[in-house]
Here is the input.
Amino acid sequence: MDLNAKIAALLRDFAAVQTSKLKMWGYRRAAAAVLALEEPIETLLQPDGTLRKTPNIGPSSSRIILEVLQTGTSATVEQTIAGSDQVVDVDRRRGLRGHFLSRSQVVAALKNRRLKGPRLADYRGDLQMHSTWSDGTQTLDDIVRTGIARGYQFCAVTDHSYGLPIARGVSMQRLFEQHRAIDRINARAGGTFRLLKGIEANIRADGSVDMTPGELRQLEVVVAAPHSGLRSAADQTARMIKAVATPGVHILGHPRGRKYGSRPGVSADWEQVFEAAARANVAVEIDGDPHRQDIDYDLAALAIHAGCLFALDSDAHSTAELSYAETAVAHARLAGVPPDRIVNCWPLDRLVEWLQAARTSG
Ligand SMILES: [Zn+2]
Here is the structure.
C-alpha cells in the first residue's frame, strides 16, 4: 500500500475542487511534496500526534494527512468533492493514477534486496534526455558533468526532432552543429565518458517516424515516441507495431504517452507491440519521469515475457531530473527485469555494437 501516493492523490483531488486559486496551488504543492518524500509518510508522525514540519505542507494539508493516517481516508475531501460539480472529472482523474510510484516507494524498491531486477550500481548510463538545444535547460557540458558525478560511463542526448516544433525540435543543420559540439566534448573526456548522438523522433498518427532513413542513420541513438493520440480510446496497435519495425529505431520511448492523473495514453494490444519490438531488437523504454512512469512494472512484466530488451531512462530536461532514472530502475526491479536485458546496464562496447546493428539493418 503506497500511502504517500494515496494521500497525494487526495490532496490533488481536494485542490481541484477549491474555489480559491491560492488554496488550489497550496494543496497542489502539498501533494507534490508528499509524492517527493523519501520516506513513508507515517514517519512524519510525532509522539504528540502532530505532523513534523515539512516544506510546502501547510496546516490545512497536514489536517487532511492526519485524517487519512487516523481513518484510512479523508471524509473532508470526499464530502467536498460530493458537494461540488466535479464528481465526474475527479473520478476520471482517479482512474489515471494506477501503477504510479511515489518517491518513497521508489526508494523502497531500490533498497529491497528480495527483488531480482537491476541494482542502481548496474546502471551505466542514461539514453533519453533533453538539452538547451531543444526544450531542456541543461547544456551538453552539464549533462557530462552530472552524468560522471552519478557514476555513468555514457549518456545519450536525445533532443526532439524537427517534426515536433512545439518542443523546439532541432533542424538537421542544428543537429549537425550539435554533433560537432559532442565530438569536441568527447575528445576532451578522453575515453572516461561518452556522450552519444541521439534524437527523440516523433511517431506520427500512421506509425511512421518523422525523419527519413538517411537522417536516422546520422544518429547513434534513435528513440521513437508517440506525442499525439494520447487521449484516444481507439486501438493503435498497428501504429505502434509500424513504429518499432522502422529500421534505425533503437528504443520505443514512453510507449503509452500517459500522464499522471491527466491522460491514459495510447490504447494498444501491448503484447503484440512488445512481440514486434522483440522481433525488431528494439528496446522498450521505462521512462522514469515521475509523471510518466511509462511503461510501469505491470506492463514491463508483459514485455519480459515477450522477450524484449529494455531501456531505463530519465527523460530529463534539467540536471536535477537525471535522478528520474531511479524511478525507471525501481519499476524494472518490481517487474524483475533481468539486468542482461537492459541496454543501460551493458558495457559501452556492447551497447555501441547493438546501436550500430540497428543502423545498418535499414
Ligand atoms: Zn517525448
About this structure: The pocket of zinc ion is lined by residues 200, 225, 227, 253-254 (CB under 6 Å). Residues 43 and 52 are 9 Å apart (CA to CA).
